Amino acid sequence: MKSSRALLLGFATVMLVSAAAALDRPEVTFKVFQFPADKIPRVDGDAGDWAMVPDDYAIGMDQFVDDSSRHAKPDTTKLDVKIRVGWVKGLNRLYFLYEAYADSWNFSSPDLNNNIFEVVVDGDASGGPLVDRGRSWTAEEVGAARAAPEARISAAESHWAIQGAHAQNYHVFTPAKDKDWCMAWSAATWVKELPWANSACSYNFKSGESGKLVLEFWITPFDYAGPEGPQRAIESVLSENKIIGLSFAIFDRGDPKRPGGNPFWNLSRHHSMVGNASELCAFKLMPVEPQYQKPIEARWSWTMVDMDRRLVAFKDLSVGKVTSWKWNFGDGESSTDQNPIHAYKEARSDYVVILDVEGPAGTSRRSKVWDIQFK
Asked: Does residue 358 lie within any of the structural domains?
């Protein structure tokens, strides 16, 4: 019979596969680069912090499609973009670097008539309707709604109950001039403000001119983000190897006289992904690249199982190949288990717990001073 751990791992694998399969473009899973904790990118419009990100993380114009078939293949002499996405373990943030050249930028108007980089994120890959007006309706659904309009909630109710609640849509202005850095297309417009988002942009051109733009920003994905404000919001928990739903669209509104109109390019194959999170693409939160990892490093966490019995569970989180563990619980007791459970006899507040690990790359130690307290 399989162990509980094996069953849980199998279930987690099935959930990851199911999440990826439910999203668009099942043949590809895009990657999100993990920045080490000591190399978090500074959001200042300077791409230098991103030089460490390998090229295979970059998404260019060759990855974008146009499901309307109204526009020709992207002409990179007129518009050329490169996008990288990052994350940091322990922070529920997605970092973006958007580098773009355009033969003509449009940003003189105070409204949506602007070059735009649209980002839609579903942090738990739950899918489903996102923006009511962007949803694709079947003929049967339209007929049913007309025959029994009371069966469908009103547009206002839909906006306040659904729009942006479980997935978020950001129209990022490229560049933003005399207005907010983006339009959060949701009832929860607060998601674009600090401390849930931040942005910086650098460019040296005027509206109507050509040039290169560098945009950095980060956002916080939410499993729930309601219009009432952040007090009931639930951040999406980001963890290694997790699959999230994410997609982009690029509005090229630089030349209003361009034959055929202004192109609209999607990473998803569906223009309607702006209103349906099930049509986003699968992105995987990657582990730290080997060249940025220490060969071996002791790390661990703990959980209070039973305060009355002073029962504590310890979990090994060490990095690298580890072949042996030695725990010193600070009370004269020790263990060589990887993930021990220990009962303390005395209700003290001065325990110093130490984990020593060993492997082919050497040894490492991590102590925590007075984390474990009973009085």
From this structure: yes
* Per-residue pLDDT tens digits for 122-150: 999 999 888 765 444 444 544 544 454 45
In a domain, 375, yes or no: no
Same domain? 149 vs 122: yes
Count: domains in the chain? 2
- What predicted TM-score, i.e. pTM, was given to this entire model? 0.84
Ranges of the chain with pLDDT below 50: 1-18, 134-139, 141-142, 144-146, 148-149, 151
Q: Which residues constitute the domain of residue 176?
A: 4-285
**Which of 257, 285, 313 corresponds to the end of one domain?**
285
Cβ atoms within 10 Å of 370's Cβ, excluding its own? 12
- Domain ends where: 264, 285, 306? 285
CATH number of the domain enclosing 38: 2.60.40.1190
Whether 221 and 318 share a structural domain? no
**Do 101 and 59 have their domain in common?**
yes
